[in-house]
Design goal:
Layout lengths: L2 H13 L9 H5 L10 H13 L5 H11 L16 H12 L7 H27 L6 H4 L5 H11 L4 H13 L3 E3 L2 E3 L20 E3 L6 H13 L7 H14 L2 E3 L2 E3 L3 E3 H6 L16 H15 L2 H15 L2 H5 L10 H14 L2 H18 L6 H12 L7 H13 L15
Antiparallel strand pairs: 1-2, 3-6, 4-5
Length: 421
Amino acid sequence: MNAPAAELSAALAGLLTDLRSPALGPRTAAEDRQHLAYGLPGIALLHIERAAAGLAPWSIAHDWLTAAVGQPFTVGPDSHPFYGGPALAHAVACAGDHMPGAYAGALAVLDRRIVKDTHRRLTNAHDRLDAGRLPVMAEYDTIRGLAGYGAYLLRRDPGSTDVRAVLGYCVRLTDTLDHDGYPVPGWWTTTPPTARPDHRFAGGHANTGLSHGISGVLALLALAARHKTVVGGHHDAIRTILAWLDRWQENTATGPAWPHWVTRDELRTGLPARSAPRRPSWCYGTAGVARAQQLAALALGDPGRQLDAEKALIGALTDSAQLKATTDNGLCHGFTGLAHVAGRTAQDAHPSTAGQIRALIPALLAAVCPPGADPADLAQRTVEEAGSGFLDGAAGIALALLAPATGAPPRTSWDACLLTA
């Protein structure tokens, strides 16, 4: 038990308990109310996990879910795994797993809508593939795309035809495409990762991240295979993605690392651009990529690759240059996200590396809650500076601290939306 981290998690949850709390901020109550990253569903996840762990009454979690459905929510083309109906469904499903029957009616409605939206997206994606066009990043990624839809469907019914349909698309995504007479991987996109025009990506790029890149697709394929749900070409697709990541692996003083993306110029020369050390976060960087590779190795029964992935994470978490590039405490790209990924990786790790990974978690927690800090004061500052949200703010920090602080795995599937488990 890491008492300071556990106390900070509890203090953050306390600040986010009252639906009328000023700590929630305008984003939670207004335009981002439906967003998993910033709004009510993400905060509900915190209270659901605490209730499942026996740390709080279920009534608090229920109040947050009730508030989330108290106003109309978005479905259809304007929704995605982190916004609208799918975001709400993820939170409701986490509660429903521990309260059988309590949310069955709501989940049935949400599931039907999500299946409908998934198949609409799949139809558009296959039409695009048939025409030989490049995808937009939101077609396939974890946050907005089919990897995220697949993560939800895999949780709900691992062997369903709907899951298999998403997996079949993921397999097709690994086929090589032609872009201006040059062969590129099927996930090559002209969508800039910066979400705004950027001359560096004029020729497109291949994104490696777990949040917006091919590592999310890799993790979905691997998790499905571990559930014994596979489709034609499934393992070949996993190997294709792994071969791409192998090609662009960089060697640092402490072990391998991966670029956040590969540009057209880098693809032509075969050389990654030199850059400053990158943070090893969940969303981009070595932590997320290493977890996806570990899952893939477990799915393939490849102990050598598994050890390599686990050692890559160890290297990243002992590399002062990479850790120095980590500048916040958030779940998405901060220290609590690293602690959570480390905990999940250690659960599945080889005995020779599991202990090494667990031994690194206290230092990550100390970066979030330094020795001698007052958890109550730190919680207040966290809410004021980072907001209340799930991906970057207090709710996600409190959630990501729980398992590493207590040494017990998560009681719910709250992190299924991150494709870390």
